[in-house]
Write a structure and sequence with these properties.
Blueprint: H1 4-18, E1 23-28, H2 35-51, H3 58-61, E2 62-63, H4 66-75, E3 81-84, H5 99-108, E4 117-121, H6 130-136, E5 139-142, E6 148-152, H7 167-172, H8 183-190, E7 196-201, H9 207-222, H10 231-244, H11 246-255, H12 263-269, H13 283-303
Helix pairs in contact: 4-5, 11-12, 12-13
């Protein structure tokens, strides 16, 4: 099977990007129906088609939590796909007031210059925080049964509260849907929603690639995550300590091997909260942030276009050299 409509969908996403927009995609469906498989296949074919990458690097394009999403938003090249797998970890409405969720929403709201294709995978669209669902998501992909993707676009009418007309499903579906519901019956219901756009079949992920995905996912599922560090709070604390504890910090630097600040010195002198007397960040955190910044700088330098050389005009002297 050629999966022609799948390729057309990928080209449509590219057109969105070329219109100076990012493509935030909510991918929903019951557990085990293929949300991750769909996102992987779209991302895989996209980088093959537009980046010329014959082998899909799953680690490069997938993220499982706030920290990974933020890191990849900053470091992935422009036009990249980004799979936010298990988006319930960072984009659920019930977590809207957590510091890390607020910080991520601010970043996602401003990523248009990166023109990413950002997949948010979770069971139901109404699980998404309202700001994501109503203001940021440009395409909703519903996967009600294996290998079928139903595509919806939001109603842009400013006078409605539900851009996706989710309540329409309550009106049109008199009988319950299950994992074994016939696709024709599901399509009959979906087509009555004014946001319905199209549907297509998508292939299974190659076994070797899916095994790599499962290994990464399972490792993330059972690892213990550290407490989220609010970077703004760290910055405020560092500013305070630089102003009022400068002498102690400078003395530690002067005693160091190379007379330069190390991450350990920063931990001991700059991130002690003056209110609680507790450290709010560690040297490992500083090291990680330093790596992320270096990656971001390299990414900018790689994508920067060379400045055009000034042409020499006959008869016009060169500008004077400044010593």
């Amino acid at each position: 099977m050629s999966y022609e409509n799948l390729n057309k969908f990928i080209d449509y996403l590219r057109k969105i990007q070329e219109s100076n927009m990012d493509a935030l995609i909510g991918v929903t469906g019951p557990r085990g129906m293929g949300k991750s498989s769909f996102a992987i296949q779209i991302a895989r074919r996209y980088v093959e088609r537009y980046f010329g990458e014959p082998s899909f690097n799953i680690r490069k394009y997938i993220a499982f939590d706030n920290d990974e999403v933020l890191e990849k938003i900053h470091t992935l090249p422009v036009y990249s796909p980004l799979i936010g797998d298990e988006a319930a970890r960072f984009a659920m409405g019930e977590d809207w007031n957590k510091a890390e969720s607020k910080e991520l929403k601010k970043v996602v709201a401003q990523i248009r210059p990166k023109r990413l294709i950002f997949f948010l995978n979770l069971p139901k669209l109404n699980w998404l925080d309202k700001k994501y669902r109503e203001e940021m998501v440009k395409i909703w992909v519903w996967i009600p049964t294996r290998e079928y993707a139903l595509i919806f676009e939001p109603d842009m009418n400013p006078g409605i509260d539900d851009s996706w007309h989710l309540n329409e499903f309550k009106r049109f579906s008199k009988k319950r849907l299950s994992h074994f519901s016939d696709i024709d019956r599901i399509l009959k219901i979906a087509r009555r929603n004014p946001c319905f756009m199209d549907y297509f079949k998508f292939p299974k992920v190659p076994e070797e690639l899916y095994d790599r995905y499962e290994a990464i996912r399972n490792a993330r599922a059972f690892e213990s995550k550290p407490t989220f560090i609010n970077q703004k709070e760290v910055a405020r604390t560092m500013v305070y300590n630089l102003k009022y504890n400068w002498d102690g910090f400078l003395a530690a630097v002067n005693k160091s091997k190379n007379n330069r600040p190390t991450f350990d010195i920063m931990e001991d002198h700059l991130v002690i909260d003056p209110r609680t007397k507790e450290k709010i960040a560690s040297s490992k955190t500083f090291s990680k942030w330093n790596r992320e910044m270096n990656l971001a700088i390299r990414n900018i330098e790689t994508n920067r276009k060379p400045e055009p050389k000034l042409s020499i005009i006959p008869g016009v002297p060169d500008p004077p050299k400044i010593e």
